Amino acid sequence: xxxxxxxxxxxxxxxxxxxxxxxxxxxxxxxxxxxxxxxxxxxxxxxxxxxxxxxxxxxxxxxxxxxxxxxxxxxxxxxxxxxxxxxxxxxxxxxxxxxxxxxxxxxxxxxxxxxxxxxxxxxxxxxxxxxxxxxxxxxxxxxxxxxxxxxxxxxxxxxxxxxxxxxxxxxxxxxxxxxxxxxxxxxxxxxxxxxxxxxxxxxxxxxxxxxxxxxxxxxxxxxxxxxxxxxxxxxxxxxxxxxxxxxxxxxxxxxxxxxxxxxxxxxxxxxxxxxxxxxxxxxxxxxxxxxxxxxxxxxxxxxxxxxxxxxxxxxxxxxxxxxxxxxxxxxxxxxxxxxxxxxxxxxxxxxxxxxxxxxxxxxxxxxxxxxxxxxxxxxxxxxxxxxxxxxxxxxxxxxxxxxxxxxxxxxxxxxxxxxxxxxxxxxxxxxxxxxxxxxxxxxxxxxxxxxxxxxxxxxxxxxxxxxxxxxxxxxxxxxxxxxxxxxxxxxxxxxxxxxxxxxxxxxxxxxxxxxxxxxxxxxxxxxxxxxxxxxxxxxxxxxxxxxxxxxxxxxxxxxxxxxxxxxxxxxxxxxxxxxxxxxxxxxxxxxxxxxxxxxxxxxxxxxxxxxxxxxxxxxxxxxxxxxxxxxxxxxxxxxxxxxxxxxxxxxxxxxxxxxxxxxxxxxxxxxxxxxxxxxxxxxxxxxxxxxxxxxxxxxxxxxxxxxxxxxxxxxxxxxxxxxxxxxxxxxxxxxxxxxxxxxxxxxxxxxxxxxxxxxxxxxxxxxxxxxxxxxxxxxxxxxxxxxxxxxxxxxxxxxxxxxxxxxxxxxxxxxxxxxxxxxxxxxxxxxxxxxxxxxxxxxxxxxxxxxxxxxxxxxxxxxxxxxxxxxxxxxxxxxxxxxxxxxxxxxxxxxxxxxxxxxxxxxxxxxxxxxxxxxxxxxxxxxxxxxxxxxxxxxxxxxxxxxxxxxxxxxxxxxxxxxxxxxxxxxxxxxxxxxxxxxxxxxxxxxxxxxxxxxxxxxxxxxxxxxxxxxxxxxxxxxxxxxxxxxxxxxxxxxxxxxxxxxxxxxxxxxxxxxxxx
Length: 1062
Known about the structure:
The protein is mostly beta strands. The protein has 9 domains: 42-148, Immunoglobulins (Immunoglobulin-like, Sandwich), CATH 2.60.40.10; 152-255, Immunoglobulins (Immunoglobulin-like, Sandwich), CATH 2.60.40.10; 259-353, Sandwich (Immunoglobulin-like); 363-435, Immunoglobulin-like (Sandwich); 440-542, Immunoglobulin-like (Sandwich); 553-653, Sandwich (Immunoglobulin-like); 661-738, Immunoglobulin-like (Sandwich); 741-844, Immunoglobulin-like, CATH 2.60.40.1080; and more. Strands 66, 67, 69, 70, 72 and 73 form a 6-stranded antiparallel sheet that branches. Strands 85, 86, 88, 89, 91 and 92 form a 6-stranded antiparallel sheet that branches. Strand 93 and strand 94 form a beta hairpin. The protein is elongated. It comes from Listeria booriae.
């Protein structure tokens, strides 16, 4: 019940399954919905249903559960009405008077194939809370949710039991194609399947019941083992329970090793013939299997069933059978009888083909002249034209000179000679000779005196003899060298096609004038030579004019360094803020002759490589270089003849070089908690004045980063790190931090393992137990490879140990939390550095309060037959949710105990009653049951002198039978005496006493005799007076019979004596 009302007397029941709600189902609180409606009476309405999603509410897709009995009681415990849920699960109580009520659900009417899942409004005792029904109101919110029990599963294997030990050992393959049929106890076929390739078979979702299986093996196998199977292929009966897994119905089979094999041979080559189709038939012409011969001509049909067979070879068109073994000339074998292990080998055939052999090869040429890079195809054909095999092969004698493929296509690779051999399948060949030459071109031109200095050879400008001309390959190697002839001509003949350049060295007294073909250094650009004559590479020379000798070149007016000699320097370096002694941004240069006189620069020129960096000018006898910006530029000073006096580089560096970019080693970092590293960041350019960087983490709870870029992952999540230069250029790195371990909750009853996510909420009740019956939450840790991690490497704390506390590490890989009381506790798992690896909350609702013990008022009771009573038992604690008790008698023939603890003494003896709580705690009450009658005497009685009142003869007396259920009497000669005028009957007297007084068989007790032939009470001695004195008097004969004594007041049997007369 859910409140403190007391019910009037009502039978007890238990809602079995309330605890099966499991870990993750949040407890549901009953609600009452009242809908106002006009009318003088109220109603109650709701439904019983299949709660598919466990939310405690009937959704549109959830079917109703019919046939559940619900009884309505008023608050005095008086039954008002009873109904059962309809096909859609609904139930209704209409026309209910205004008042307070409760309902009771009968668990005995729950469907067998469903299990209680969720409850709303009903307690674990099957009773609802009290609720009020007002006039015109409809009360709802009282329902039960169920889930359908899964059927049982049978999963086993049929396998090739090579060693016949009944177990599938390594190397023993499963047997496919075995038929397995499941029957119920009535012999009706329930299901049928065939074993898979690995021999496995499965029957799933089998309703609870009793079944047997029959297995039919393939024809080539026989049953040799199977613990549950007989030689007829049947199992015995076995039970399948709901959700039970049965895996021991395995069958060991022996697969026949019988085989038929042989070889198909080509007569001409005496080699095996590949891909000849072979077909196997049974004697009745049924096709069994087919195969093809392998590369050696072999074939085999293996693992054959015991039968008669024949083999047919499919002879290729054009071939014929010329020799056989085991075959006829029609390529059909003889009949072959195969036993379990028969090896019928050497069923062979020899075939002869109707072939036309090649006799010659016709080629269109015997010689080929080619150049490097040329391609072609050999035109060859087999003679005669109707040759069976026209295959040709092509081989080349020197693959470095010529390549040829399987179709006769060739490519000339290098200069040289090679032979191509063309060969038929039967070895006839032809040779084609190939000569490969290189493709060549020619360089032919002049070196001349360019008198007008325009770079072009014109009429009247003579050639210059004695100039050295060198031809270079593209790799710089010298290919050939010539000296120009009297006309200044050079001519390089037979130059292989390719890329070259030419270098001219002028004879003494000449300088080279640059033109379209040559630079001032006498070098051409790269020239691509084809199969042609190149004639446009003329080199212009001009005669030397005696120059003024420049002996010194000085950087003057340099206020920082004075006059700096530049003659031997190839560069000048200044900053972009450089000024001369006159504070002008100018580099001043003067040239001096051998006498240290300033040279007149009339006609001199200064040329800048990049005049955006600096410009140059001749100002009188000064060379002035005016800086503009940072950078480097070439500077060339030439005299009036165009001769280069000085080449150097002016390098202007920035006085402050700002950062322009940041280069990152990675823009994304994936890591785990506790991992450390360093950000790989570099300021660009490399010569930036200030290369300092700052690092900022957007969330230091996830990642901390130090001033030097070293970082440490602290918690799960995604954050960013901003890298910034001194001049505020930034780059962002995304960092994703995950836990190094996965935390999984294990051993959850009726649920799969659960992975704990960050800030997870686990909802359980105080009576939660795991699959091992322990009041613990069991966790395991796994790394990224799913390997188990030792929980000892991490610390675990609970925010409220009165609710959840950590249990000691047992060394078995589990982290265990003890469930102590209702409440909530935050569980924190940290690594050795104190980083939080996982944090989650366990919410513990108050569940059922389990009994802790049971006591009885009396642990030992002495009573006697027919007495009744009740065991007074109390469950501890007083507020236990389920106080139900069960009572079991060790000897119901002595003491019968009822479900409510009431008992009745049935027979003398001892019995122990075990009192057990709902969770299995027990205590006992020992009963000693005494006989109902304090004394029962038996004696033989005969008076031979009845007429004279003579003495009575007593014989075979037994002092007390009150504690005996079975007695044996010995037949006496006196038992045969029959009453007449002189004597009495010889008879046996059974005399019954209670507390020392004889009983009255006329008023208080009656008796019956099962076999009156053996014990005959229909005698004159069995008078009313004798019965008043507790006598049962009988004449006896040999045999067995039973005396049953019944108490008249209540009809209870108070004594049974089994009597044997021998």
